[in-house]
Each structure stands twice: as C-alpha cells, then as structure tokens.
Amino acid sequence: MIELDGLTKRFGSKIAVDHLSCQVRPGIVTGFLGPNGAGKSTTMRMMLDLDNPTSGTVRIDGKHYRELQEPLKYIGALLDAKAMHGGRSAYNNLLCLAQSNRIPSSRVDEVLDMVGLSAVAKKKSKGFSLGMGQRLGIASALLGDPEILMFDEPVNGLDPEGIHWIRNLMKALASEGRTIFVSSHLMSEMALTADHLIVIGQGKLLADTSMADFIHENSRSYARLRSPQQERLRDVLHQEGFTVVETAGGVLEIDGATTEELGELAARHQLVLHELSSQRASLEEAFMQMTAGSVEYHAHSERDPAAEPPVVGAGWGEGWNSPGGTDRTDRTDRKGA
Description:
Elements (H helix, E strand, L loop, with lengths): L1 E10 L2 E11 L4 E5 L6 H8 L7 E6 L14 E4 L11 H11 L5 H9 L15 H13 L5 E5 L7 H16 L3 E5 L3 H7 L2 E6 L2 E7 H7 L4 E5 L3 H10 L4 E3 L5 E4 L3 H10 L6 E5 L3 H9 L46
Parallel strand pairs: 3-7, 3-8, 5-6, 6-7
Antiparallel strand pairs: 1-2, 1-4, 8-9, 10-12, 10-13, 11-12
Helix pairs in contact: 2-3, 3-4, 7-10
C-alpha cells in the first residue's frame, strides 16, 4: 500500500502539490489522472524520494522509500524509460540494477523474456525504438518481483500488441494482490485498465473513487428510445412523469429511467420499439467535466473562424491566386501543454 498524508511540494511561490492525502490500495489497478501541470509527476517522484516534499509524508508499506534496504523488491517504477544508460546493453542495464538490490542474475533473463526483449538483450539500449525502450523500463520495474508497481505513461510508444500485453499484465498483477498505480493521459486505455481513480487538479485532490462512480457522478446517463409510434410513446412517457427530450431522427432521451422499466412500460401499452438503449458518457467526457476548472494550460486557435464571415457566392477556389486573394486555411496552435 502507498499512503500519502498532507503531501505538499512548493517550487518557490508555485504550489505543485497541495496537501494531498490518499491511499493506493492493493488488489486493484488505481489510475492517477489530472491535466498537464496538475502535479502528477511531482507526486510520483516524491513517492520514490526523488523530490523531497515541503511538508507531509509518503509511506510505502509503512516506510519511507529511503528506509527500504533493497527497494526494488518492495516497489518497482517506470517514470522515464530514457533513464537507462544508452551505452549499456539491455541485459547489462538490468544486471546493474539486480546486483545493487541483491537480485539473482537469472531474474534478468526472466524479465527480458517477459517483456519480449530476449532477442535484443545484448544490444545497446541507445539504439532502441521508443517502444523497445518502454519495454526495457517496464522490465526494470518488474525486476525485483515487487508487491507495488508504479507506471507513468506505460503504453507510450507501444504497438497495439504491446498495449494489450501491458494492460493484461497490470490486471493480472493486481489480481495477485499487488498494488498497481498507473498514470496516463490516454483515457480510452485507462477506462479499460483501472478499477479505481485518483484525480488531481492544480495539486489538489479532486476525486478518490471507483471508475464506475466517477463516470456516474461527473456525466449524464440516460435511456434512448426510438419508435414508429413516437407521438403515442411520448404521451405515455409524459403520463408516467418522465421528462422527455426529443433529438434528431425522432430519438427520445429520458433521464432517470432504466431500460428495464421503459421496456416494461412500452410492453404494457403495446408500443413497438425500434431502439431501447442505455447511454453513458465515456471516462474522457467525465474527466473533462470534472477538471474543467483545473486546466492550467489551454490551447487556443490563432484566429477565430467566427470573427470573419464566409464569402458568399464565390465558387470553390475563386481568387486563390489573385493579387488580392486571401489564404483562408485555418491554422491551429499546437503548443505543448
């Protein structure tokens, strides 16, 4: 278990992490989410004593990381896959870590095989692709067969097979009772992997809840109905006290109702349904809703398309090369966050 109690980190006048308290429990995959600049990386670095907190504490199974005699046997972490020594082979990179933590050298071969790098074990890591480097970083986290594992953007650079593999690996390790803590900006992947979420914004805790509860509490869930007897269906729904929203294509949306009760209601009134489905927002939509007020870095377009009305009556391409012609191509500011 990882326990954070009042964890705070200041860089001058900037508060990167603000009195953060939470627990990362064993037996589940815990996702760590937040906008860019929310303090996720700083928090993970403080967990490993790479940064000292201004105040508050982090404990790994009741101890500070610096108090662990052979830390790789307690906690394995992937924070930066590029941290490996580029002049060493994949095998020797892991061997150095193994020897420093009294881990048998046979374990090096095991984890290289586990991550699919056995064929390039003797090659220098500086020649590795982004995905291969990521696999080597994952191997280093697994090296001590620890009970706690931390991953920061573990699928970065991995191909679809690699993404599927790391997802299943994290789930399998959690099912063994291990503590799995993973940070990622890929919401679709996090939705498939995590059981529990810890969400922060501007260094503060915003949510510490299950995946299902997070989506339910931060998004709209509704039932969707479509029928050739639309008017009669709408009248029946109104009589039963439901609020109905009509959308394009004659689709009716009803909040606060289950598909079961709506199906039974339609059956009682002998109404034909062409569609009856439950609609729930994605993790990405729920995340955007919760963190809307905590986003520090916003991207903006260089020009507002609404500020300049379209030219009416001009044919496609007219005036593109004339002396007074205007380049109307939209451009997007892609400044990194």
